[in-house]
Amino acid sequence: MCRWMAYFGDPVPVEDLLFRPEHSIIDQSLHAKLGSFTTNGDGFGIGWYGTGSVPAVFKSTHPAWSDENLHEVATQINTPLLFAHVRASSGTPVQRSNCHPFRYGRWLWMHNGSLARFPELKHDMMMAVDPALYPKIEGSTDTEALFFLALTFGLTEDPPNAVARAVGLTEQIGRRRGVEYPVHMTVATTDGETIWAFRYSSEGNTSSLYYSTDVAQLRQLHPELDVLDRLGPDARLIVSEPLRDLPGAWNEVPDGSWGFVRRGKQEIHPFEPVRGG
To answer: How many domains does the chain have?
Structure first.
Protein backbone atom coordinates (compact mmCIF):
# COMPACT_ATOMS: atom_id res chain seq x y z
CA MET A 1 0.00 0.00 0.00
CA CYS A 2 0.99 3.65 -0.36
CA ARG A 3 0.38 6.97 1.39
CA TRP A 4 -0.95 10.16 -0.18
CA MET A 5 -2.08 13.67 0.63
CA ALA A 6 -3.97 16.38 -1.27
CA TYR A 7 -4.13 20.09 -0.44
CA PHE A 8 -6.65 22.66 -1.67
CA GLY A 9 -6.80 26.33 -0.69
CA ASP A 10 -4.90 29.56 -1.04
CA PRO A 11 -1.36 29.21 -2.41
CA VAL A 12 1.11 27.92 0.19
CA PRO A 13 4.76 26.82 0.03
CA VAL A 14 5.00 23.15 -0.90
CA GLU A 15 7.80 22.78 1.64
CA ASP A 16 5.29 23.60 4.40
CA LEU A 17 2.99 20.81 3.24
CA LEU A 18 5.57 18.10 2.59
CA PHE A 19 8.20 18.58 5.28
CA ARG A 20 7.00 20.68 8.22
CA PRO A 21 4.16 18.60 9.77
CA GLU A 22 5.19 16.20 12.55
CA HIS A 23 3.88 13.20 10.62
CA SER A 24 4.34 14.62 7.13
CA ILE A 25 4.02 12.56 3.98
CA ILE A 26 7.84 12.41 4.01
CA ASP A 27 7.78 10.95 7.52
CA GLN A 28 5.08 8.51 6.37
CA SER A 29 7.40 7.27 3.64
CA LEU A 30 9.51 5.82 6.45
CA HIS A 31 7.13 5.51 9.41
CA ALA A 32 3.56 4.97 8.22
CA LYS A 33 1.25 4.08 11.09
CA LEU A 34 -2.06 3.05 9.52
CA GLY A 35 -1.06 1.26 6.31
CA SER A 36 -0.09 -2.32 5.57
CA PHE A 37 3.55 -1.27 5.16
CA THR A 38 5.58 0.92 7.49
CA THR A 39 7.94 1.91 4.68
CA ASN A 40 6.80 3.45 1.39
CA GLY A 41 10.11 3.77 -0.42
CA ASP A 42 9.38 2.63 -3.98
CA GLY A 43 9.38 6.12 -5.43
CA PHE A 44 7.33 9.26 -4.97
CA GLY A 45 5.61 11.98 -6.93
CA ILE A 46 4.07 15.40 -6.55
CA GLY A 47 1.69 17.20 -8.89
CA TRP A 48 0.72 20.86 -8.63
CA TYR A 49 -1.01 23.69 -10.46
CA GLY A 50 0.82 26.89 -11.32
CA THR A 51 0.83 29.30 -14.25
CA GLY A 52 0.64 26.73 -17.05
CA SER A 53 -2.43 25.25 -18.69
CA VAL A 54 -1.68 21.78 -17.29
CA PRO A 55 -0.37 20.68 -13.89
CA ALA A 56 3.32 20.07 -13.36
CA VAL A 57 4.52 16.65 -12.17
CA PHE A 58 7.79 15.74 -10.47
CA LYS A 59 8.46 12.03 -9.89
CA SER A 60 11.38 9.86 -8.89
CA THR A 61 12.12 6.22 -8.11
CA HIS A 62 14.20 7.34 -5.11
CA PRO A 63 12.71 7.13 -1.62
CA ALA A 64 11.12 10.46 -0.72
CA TRP A 65 13.01 10.74 2.56
CA SER A 66 16.43 10.80 0.84
CA ASP A 67 15.76 12.78 -2.34
CA GLU A 68 17.53 16.14 -2.10
CA ASN A 69 15.95 17.32 -5.36
CA LEU A 70 12.47 17.02 -3.85
CA HIS A 71 13.44 19.33 -1.01
CA GLU A 72 15.02 21.80 -3.43
CA VAL A 73 11.92 21.87 -5.62
CA ALA A 74 9.57 22.14 -2.64
CA THR A 75 11.27 25.31 -1.38
CA GLN A 76 10.54 27.12 -4.66
CA ILE A 77 6.87 26.26 -5.30
CA ASN A 78 3.72 27.96 -4.02
CA THR A 79 0.51 26.32 -5.16
CA PRO A 80 -3.22 26.32 -4.38
CA LEU A 81 -3.51 22.60 -5.13
CA LEU A 82 -0.99 19.85 -4.44
CA PHE A 83 -1.05 16.08 -4.82
CA ALA A 84 1.74 14.12 -3.09
CA HIS A 85 2.25 10.35 -3.07
CA VAL A 86 4.81 7.92 -1.63
CA ARG A 87 4.73 4.45 -3.15
CA ALA A 88 4.92 0.91 -1.84
CA SER A 89 4.74 -1.28 -4.93
CA SER A 90 2.14 -4.04 -5.01
CA GLY A 91 4.19 -5.98 -7.55
CA THR A 92 4.79 -3.78 -10.58
CA PRO A 93 8.32 -2.46 -11.26
CA VAL A 94 9.86 0.48 -9.46
CA GLN A 95 10.15 2.90 -12.37
CA ARG A 96 9.21 6.53 -12.94
CA SER A 97 6.26 5.71 -15.19
CA ASN A 98 4.70 3.74 -12.33
CA CYS A 99 4.97 6.57 -9.78
CA HIS A 100 1.90 8.61 -8.89
CA PRO A 101 0.26 11.01 -9.54
CA PHE A 102 -0.72 10.19 -13.11
CA ARG A 103 -1.62 13.01 -15.48
CA TYR A 104 -3.93 13.41 -18.45
CA GLY A 105 -4.41 16.96 -19.71
CA ARG A 106 -5.47 19.06 -16.73
CA TRP A 107 -6.28 15.97 -14.67
CA LEU A 108 -4.25 14.28 -11.93
CA TRP A 109 -4.96 10.90 -10.32
CA MET A 110 -3.40 8.99 -7.41
CA HIS A 111 -4.31 5.85 -5.51
CA ASN A 112 -3.61 3.81 -2.41
CA GLY A 113 -4.62 0.17 -2.52
CA SER A 114 -4.57 -2.56 -5.13
CA LEU A 115 -6.60 -4.51 -7.64
CA ALA A 116 -6.37 -8.12 -6.49
CA ARG A 117 -4.57 -10.44 -8.96
CA PHE A 118 -4.19 -7.55 -11.37
CA PRO A 119 -2.10 -9.48 -13.94
CA GLU A 120 -5.13 -11.74 -14.49
CA LEU A 121 -7.47 -8.75 -14.87
CA LYS A 122 -5.18 -6.50 -16.88
CA HIS A 123 -5.97 -7.74 -20.41
CA ASP A 124 -9.73 -7.35 -20.06
CA MET A 125 -9.35 -3.95 -18.39
CA MET A 126 -7.06 -2.66 -21.11
CA MET A 127 -9.37 -3.89 -23.84
CA ALA A 128 -12.11 -1.73 -22.31
CA VAL A 129 -10.01 1.45 -22.50
CA ASP A 130 -10.96 3.85 -25.30
CA PRO A 131 -8.52 3.14 -28.20
CA ALA A 132 -7.89 6.89 -28.51
CA LEU A 133 -6.70 6.98 -24.88
CA TYR A 134 -4.71 3.74 -24.86
CA PRO A 135 -1.48 5.21 -26.36
CA LYS A 136 -1.27 7.64 -23.43
CA ILE A 137 -0.71 4.82 -20.92
CA GLU A 138 2.96 4.89 -19.94
CA GLY A 139 3.36 2.43 -17.06
CA SER A 140 2.18 -0.98 -15.91
CA THR A 141 0.27 -0.32 -12.68
CA ASP A 142 -3.29 -1.18 -11.71
CA THR A 143 -3.67 2.48 -10.70
CA GLU A 144 -3.04 3.78 -14.20
CA ALA A 145 -5.32 1.12 -15.69
CA LEU A 146 -8.14 2.24 -13.38
CA PHE A 147 -7.43 5.89 -14.25
CA PHE A 148 -7.78 5.25 -17.98
CA LEU A 149 -10.92 3.22 -17.47
CA ALA A 150 -12.37 6.18 -15.58
CA LEU A 151 -11.31 8.51 -18.40
CA THR A 152 -12.99 6.14 -20.86
CA PHE A 153 -16.22 6.35 -18.85
CA GLY A 154 -16.22 10.17 -18.75
CA LEU A 155 -14.03 11.26 -15.85
CA THR A 156 -13.59 14.75 -17.30
CA GLU A 157 -17.39 15.31 -17.39
CA ASP A 158 -18.71 13.40 -14.37
CA PRO A 159 -16.00 12.04 -12.04
CA PRO A 160 -18.24 10.20 -9.52
CA ASN A 161 -20.15 8.32 -12.21
CA ALA A 162 -17.00 7.57 -14.22
CA VAL A 163 -15.18 6.12 -11.19
CA ALA A 164 -18.28 4.13 -10.22
CA ARG A 165 -18.44 2.62 -13.72
CA ALA A 166 -14.70 1.89 -13.78
CA VAL A 167 -14.88 0.16 -10.39
CA GLY A 168 -18.03 -1.73 -11.38
CA LEU A 169 -16.41 -3.07 -14.54
CA THR A 170 -13.25 -4.03 -12.65
CA GLU A 171 -15.33 -5.99 -10.14
CA GLN A 172 -17.17 -7.75 -12.97
CA ILE A 173 -13.90 -8.70 -14.65
CA GLY A 174 -12.40 -9.85 -11.37
CA ARG A 175 -15.31 -12.02 -10.38
CA ARG A 176 -15.38 -13.64 -13.82
CA ARG A 177 -11.79 -14.59 -13.07
CA GLY A 178 -12.63 -15.96 -9.63
CA VAL A 179 -11.41 -12.94 -7.63
CA GLU A 180 -13.81 -12.48 -4.75
CA TYR A 181 -12.70 -8.99 -3.70
CA PRO A 182 -11.14 -7.30 -6.73
CA VAL A 183 -10.99 -3.64 -5.67
CA HIS A 184 -9.30 -1.95 -2.72
CA MET A 185 -8.82 1.78 -3.11
CA THR A 186 -8.60 5.27 -1.82
CA VAL A 187 -8.39 7.53 -4.88
CA ALA A 188 -7.98 11.26 -5.40
CA THR A 189 -8.46 13.02 -8.71
CA THR A 190 -8.61 16.69 -9.70
CA ASP A 191 -8.97 19.09 -12.60
CA GLY A 192 -7.27 21.91 -10.72
CA GLU A 193 -10.53 23.44 -9.50
CA THR A 194 -12.09 20.57 -7.52
CA ILE A 195 -10.67 17.53 -5.72
CA TRP A 196 -12.75 14.35 -5.72
CA ALA A 197 -11.82 11.58 -3.26
CA PHE A 198 -13.10 7.99 -3.06
CA ARG A 199 -12.81 5.37 -0.32
CA TYR A 200 -14.06 1.90 -1.29
CA SER A 201 -13.19 -1.78 -1.27
CA SER A 202 -15.08 -4.81 -2.53
CA GLU A 203 -14.89 -6.40 0.92
CA GLY A 204 -15.81 -3.24 2.83
CA ASN A 205 -12.50 -2.96 4.67
CA THR A 206 -10.74 -0.04 3.04
CA SER A 207 -7.51 1.73 3.93
CA SER A 208 -7.73 4.85 6.07
CA LEU A 209 -8.64 8.28 4.69
CA TYR A 210 -9.19 11.59 6.51
CA TYR A 211 -10.10 15.18 5.73
CA SER A 212 -9.27 18.27 7.74
CA THR A 213 -11.71 20.32 9.78
CA ASP A 214 -12.82 23.81 8.70
CA VAL A 215 -9.99 26.28 9.34
CA ALA A 216 -12.15 28.75 11.28
CA GLN A 217 -13.17 25.99 13.68
CA LEU A 218 -9.56 24.85 14.03
CA ARG A 219 -8.47 28.37 14.97
CA GLN A 220 -11.01 28.35 17.78
CA LEU A 221 -9.84 24.93 18.96
CA HIS A 222 -6.13 25.70 18.71
CA PRO A 223 -5.44 29.45 18.92
CA GLU A 224 -1.84 28.65 19.88
CA LEU A 225 -1.03 27.39 16.35
CA ASP A 226 0.29 30.28 14.25
CA VAL A 227 0.33 28.10 11.13
CA LEU A 228 -3.48 28.21 11.02
CA ASP A 229 -3.36 31.98 10.56
CA ARG A 230 -1.51 31.48 7.28
CA LEU A 231 -4.25 29.29 5.79
CA GLY A 232 -7.18 30.71 3.85
CA PRO A 233 -10.81 29.94 4.75
CA ASP A 234 -11.16 27.26 2.05
CA ALA A 235 -8.04 25.30 3.00
CA ARG A 236 -8.57 21.54 3.16
CA LEU A 237 -6.29 18.52 3.40
CA ILE A 238 -7.26 14.98 2.44
CA VAL A 239 -4.74 12.44 3.73
CA SER A 240 -4.11 8.73 4.17
CA GLU A 241 -2.94 9.49 7.70
CA PRO A 242 -3.27 12.60 9.89
CA LEU A 243 -0.22 14.85 9.55
CA ARG A 244 -0.07 15.56 13.26
CA ASP A 245 -1.90 14.53 16.42
CA LEU A 246 -4.25 17.48 16.80
CA PRO A 247 -7.60 16.96 18.59
CA GLY A 248 -10.53 17.95 16.44
CA ALA A 249 -8.43 18.46 13.31
CA TRP A 250 -9.22 15.28 11.39
CA ASN A 251 -12.40 13.54 10.30
CA GLU A 252 -12.52 10.02 8.89
CA VAL A 253 -13.95 9.67 5.41
CA PRO A 254 -16.67 6.99 5.75
CA ASP A 255 -15.90 3.67 4.11
CA GLY A 256 -17.82 3.29 0.85
CA SER A 257 -18.09 6.99 0.08
CA TRP A 258 -16.95 9.75 -2.23
CA GLY A 259 -16.67 13.46 -1.69
CA PHE A 260 -15.43 16.64 -3.26
CA VAL A 261 -13.76 19.87 -2.17
CA ARG A 262 -13.89 23.09 -4.15
CA ARG A 263 -13.77 26.75 -3.19
CA GLY A 264 -16.61 27.45 -0.78
CA LYS A 265 -18.08 23.96 -0.85
CA GLN A 266 -17.49 20.35 0.20
CA GLU A 267 -19.77 17.31 0.27
CA ILE A 268 -19.65 13.58 1.04
CA HIS A 269 -21.94 10.96 -0.54
CA PRO A 270 -22.25 7.15 -0.53
CA PHE A 271 -20.27 5.38 -3.24
CA GLU A 272 -21.74 2.48 -5.17
CA PRO A 273 -20.04 0.82 -8.16
CA VAL A 274 -22.08 0.86 -11.37
CA ARG A 275 -22.07 -2.58 -12.96
CA GLY A 276 -23.01 -3.46 -16.49
CA GLY A 277 -20.66 -1.35 -18.60
So the answer is: 1
